[in-house]
Structures are given as structure tokens and as C-alpha cells.
Amino acid sequence: MERKECVFLDRSNHSQPNTTSPSTARPVLFLLLGIGIGYLITKVLVWPIMDLKSHTNRTGASTSLDIDLTDEVRVLCYVYTKPINHKTQAQAVLETWGRRCNKLIFFSSRSDLNLTGSVELPVSPYFRESWLKTKMALKYLHDHHLNDADWFLEADDETYVVMENLRYMVYPYSPQLAIYFGSPGTVMSRAALRRLVELSLPNPSKCEQKNAGPTAEKLRECLENVNVLAGNTYDSEGRRRMYLIEPQARSNLFLHYDSNIWFWKFLAYRTQDGIFAWSNYAVSFHYVQHRYIHCFEYMIYRLRTFGRKQIVESLPPKYNPAAEKDQGAPRIGSDQDVPADYEY
Amino acid sequence: MTAKMKLRSQLHLLTGFMAGFVLAFVLLLYVYDVSRVTPCWSSTSTMTTATTARIEDGPPPRILCMVLTCPENVQSLARSVYETWGQRCSRLIFASSEDYEPLGVVGVVEPTGGGYEDLWNKTREGFRHVWEHYAGDYDWFLKADDDTYVVMENLQHLLRGFDPNTPVFFGYKMSRYNVSYMSGGASYILSREALHRFATQAYESEVICPQPKKMGIEDFYMGICMQNVGVHFVDSTHALDGDTKPKFMPLDLENYMSDANYTIPEWLRLMSLSRVETGLACCSNYSVAFHYASRERMFLYEFLIYHLKVFDPNQISERGHRSRLTLSDLTRRFPLEDNSNIKDLLQMSEKPDNF
């Protein structure tokens, strides 16, 4: 009888600790587990959406750091000049907009220690531009600077370029897309330069071999014969952004608009338009004398009108290559000479 | 017993899950709000500043622009002024020798005159005409040539610090025969009180103000008249605190932009009160007027200043609030000129040529 009682008591004592211990430990573990799961689910599902919105807002706020495209859109500027212009026109380019290029090269008939970035080409010292000089310059860029920039801007020493607006114009396009804008005053992507120099220049059936004659028409033909796209230099309101002729220069007899003069026939866009048909995001001005290059610099970057409203700017969406591929597919099929390693 | 234990475990799990969710969400909101609130504060601060400036500064100064022209220039230069900066004047008047209603050209001198030799007469009669018709309606009176380009916003910013009921004469201050005057080509501005004194005291007095004559030196003569009626000369070079560069340019901007010295004529160096700088340091960032602007230059200025946008502009904040100078402040900062040599034009010794 005593044994039975002892056995019963022992069982009671033993079972109670067992029951208490699991109930104490398990709720805490479950609680922690729940916290972890809830946190992970929220982070995975909700945070990405918020991050995107936050980034968009930050971009919309238009802080200077966010929309500085200098390093994102690298532009090499190559400027045609001649020895007699080194101290005036070329120097003005060097002191003003040339500083905003990622790299600046002057092509002349002789190099000049006082003109930083000057490269000597074996061409005539009397002509700032010629087709021979253009071909030599393009080969030089391809051989020495192909990987130094995403875009290659052609200019002469009477040009003024708003580099910020140029980067803004080409930003949507990938440098792997063979595309060019404007001619003369061409800006082409790295893929376009590569295709031009490797496929077009050596091929007589695609590119003019003779060294004489106007440059702009020949360059445009050479580019288009290897399926380099011609980009649109008009803005959303149909106003021109490139090759804006300085108004004072129009009073020059040579530059007076006349559809019969050969000069105007070779322009990519042949319509005459007034100064207010220019885009507000103008890119390049031409026939600017050297002192007026400094005037442009002052009026664009120094002079301010008090109380002028600040504009909230945002970047356009990236150009979608897939859509272009669909449109470009027939061309790819039609041209067997384009190697497969070209993205198009 | 077992059922109860299972239920408790599930409750704990659910509680933990909700706590985790709340924790993550609170962290998320904190991060999001931090990045979102800063621009809002900045915007609020900007708006507050703008509102404060607007309240304290009152309405912008009303500026009447009187532009001297001639019949041959009405369809070219005068029309360019009308189509560009003239649109931003409170009122635009052209003073010429013949009327031309479409542009608001008023004939203030005889039809036989009107050329450069009649410049002084045109200025005198123009100001007289303006005083007779508009003196009570405007605060400031700008006189410019038809080949001048004026940035009106910067002019308003400049004039906001001065009381139009005090005698003030504004412009690019120069000196000739030891007599101060404001460059005419760079344009100059009279306050309402200054115009009143000119029209009522100087206009008809040959003792203190040169009378009409051919080939009169317009800006030099106006300087004499202003001095003799007790008007304060405010050199725009020093009118803005912290900005000591010229804001009125007697030459084309192109002449200032060369580092070579030959583009600045000797007469400007001789008659300017301070050294004439060249290059980008020549001029204030809030410049007001440029002279020798052709029709093409005016349109180019209009495009570069008011139309061209540079992607990624420098967002420089502007100090909107400027206190207005009282008459005593004006006297202290811009004291009256010494007019002892020209007090009585009839009794002058050492008369300059063509006086």
C-alpha cells in the first residue's frame, strides 16, 4: 500500500515539470520566428516598391548630383582647326566649352604646345576641313581613342556647343547602338565610329575614296551605307537643336540663305527658320567668331536674370533596343557584310 | 491539454509575425520619410523666402522705357527692341522726329532733325514729353538708344533698393572735364523725383542746363543738368552689395570678351572711374544693359537669356530681400556731386569745346 502511494506521488512530480518546460519555451520561440518571417516578407515585397518611388522622387527633385551626366555620357570632342586659327578660334574653344568635354582633341596640320590636345595630320595648312582630313581624323580616333568615350563629337573652331544639352540629347541611346546625329557637326556613337572606320571607309562601294569635295555629304553617305541610324535632332516640338547658325553670321553674304547655293544643299536640314524656331535645349551653334564664343560662355553660364524660375528637369527613358530591333530586322537580313558581333 | 498548448503556440507565432511586419514597415516608413521630407522642407523654405520677399518688397518697380530712334531705324532696330526686351517694360515709348503709331513712336523734335546731331534735343524733349504725360504713373524712367539691349529683370532687382521719390540718377558713371555723368549708350535711369526736377528746374534754365543745340553731348549734358538740380549719382557698379562689377556696358559685349587690350577704346579707359576688365570677369552676373547691339545680336541675346535652357543648371539661391535706401542712406552712400565748376554755365571759365 505504501509502495502504491509512493509510485503515484512520483508520477505526479515527474509529469508536472515536463508539462511546464515545453509551454514556457515554445511561445517565445514562436514569437521570434513570427517576427523574423514578418520582417522578411515585408522587406521582400514592399521595400523594392518604396525604393523605386523614393529614387524617382530624388531624381525629380533635380539635385545637381543626380543629373550630372558628365561621367555617364562620355563625349570626346574633336575639333578641326588650322595653324592660323590656333591662337584665336581654337584657343577660345579650349577656354570655354571644350573644358566640358571628357576629352578634347584638335586636328590641325601641325601640333602646338600651346594648344592642349592638338594632333598633327599630314594635310594642307590652309583648309580647316577637308574630306581627307576627316578620314584621317576618324582613323586616328578609332586607333587611339575608341574606348575613351561613348560618343564622338565633330566640330570646328567656329562652333559653340552646350555640352550639357548634348549629353541630354544622346542620353537615351546606348553607345553600342550604331547611330549618329547631325551632319555636319556630327556626333556619333562608339559603335557607329567603329562600323564607319572598319567597314565603310575601306570599301569603295560604300564610301567615297576621292579626297576632294564637301565633307558633310560624303560622311553622311558613308555612315548610312553601313546602316548607321540617323538620329533625330529635333526636340519634341519640332525645333532644331543642332547646327544653329549664329544670327550675325547670316548677314554675311556667303551665309545668306539661298536654296541655289551649294552650301545649303548639303545641309542635313534645308529649311530656313528664325531664331525662335530653335530648341530651348540647343546643342551646337556654328559660325561663331572667337570673341563671340566667349560671349556665349558669359551669357549661358554667367549672366542670370533675377527671379528666373528654376525648372525641374528629369531624364528621358532609355531607348529600347528591342523595339528598334523589330524595325531594323529587315535591314539586318539585307546586309550580309555586317559582322555578328555588332549589336543593332 | 494538448489542444490548449497548440493554440498558444499558434497565437505566439501569429503575434510574432505581426510584430515583424510592423517592425519592417516602421523602418521602411522612416527611411522613406527621411528622403521625402528634405525636399519638402527645402521647397517650403523656398516658398517662405519668396513669400516674405514678395510681401516686404512690395510690387516690382514700374519702369517706363524711352528709347531714342530715328525714322530710318524704326523698322529695324526699333522694331527689334519692340519685339524683344521692350515687351518687358512697364511702358515703352520711342522718341523720334516722326510719329509711328504701331510701335508707339512719338515725334518730339522737328522732322528736319532726328539724327545723331539732334541727340541732345531729342533727349530733352523726350523727357519733357514723358514728364507731361506719364510722370505720375511710373517710378523710374529709362533712357536707352535703339541699339541697346536691356535685361529688365535685373534692372528691377537693382532699382528695388531705391526710393523713386528720392532724386536718383542711375547708370554707368563716367567723368569728363572733371564732371560726372552717366554713359548714354549704356542707358541711364531717372527716378520720378529726378525727372520732376529736370522738367521743372533744369529744362528751361540756361544757367544750370545746356540749351538745345546741334551736336550736343547728350549724356555729358544730362550729367550737368542732374548735378545742378541736386540729384544723387548712383554708379550701378556699386549699387548691389557684394557685387562690384559693371552692370551697364557702354560697348558691345563682344568687345569686353577679348583678353586683348585693343578692343577697349581709349576713351572708355580714360573716362571710366575704375579699371575696365576684360574676359568673363568683365561684367556682373546680373548685368542690365549692353550697347551697340545689332538687330541680330538682340535676337541672339533674347534666345540665350530667355529661351535657352541648359540641362543641369546651377541651382544658385538668390537673396530676394533687399531693404530700401532712405534719403539719408542715399546721401551717405552716394553723396551729391561737386558741381562748383558748372554751377553757372554762363559764367564758366575754361569752357569745353562745343559748349
Automatic annotation (TrEMBL), chain A:
It is found in: Membrane. The keyword Cell inner membrane does not apply. This is N-acetylgalactosaminide beta-1,3-galactosyltransferase. Its main location: membrane. GO terms for cellular component: membrane. It comes from Drosophila melanogaster. Belongs to the glycosyltransferase 31 family. Beta3-Gal-T subfamily. The chain crosses the membrane at residues 28-49. InterPro entries: C1GALT1/C1GALT1_chp1, Fringe-like_glycosylTrfase. Residues 318-344 are annotated as: Disordered. The gene is Dmel\CG2983. It is an enzyme of class 2 (transferase). Its EC number is 2.4.1.122. One of its GO terms (molecular function) is glycoprotein-N-acetylgalactosamine 3-beta-galactosyltransferase activity. The keyword Coiled coil does not apply.
UniProtKB/TrEMBL annotation, chain B:
Its EC number is 2.4.1.122. Coiled coil: none annotated. It is found in: Membrane. Residues 135-236 form the Fringe-like glycosyltransferase domain. The chain crosses the membrane at residues 12-32. InterPro entries: C1GALT1/C1GALT1_chp1, Fringe-like_glycosylTrfase. Keywords: Glycosyltransferase, Membrane, Nucleotide-binding, Signal-anchor, Transferase, Transmembrane, Transmembrane helix. It is a single-pass type II membrane protein. It is an enzyme of class 2 (transferase). This is N-acetylgalactosaminide beta-1,3-galactosyltransferase. It comes from Drosophila melanogaster.
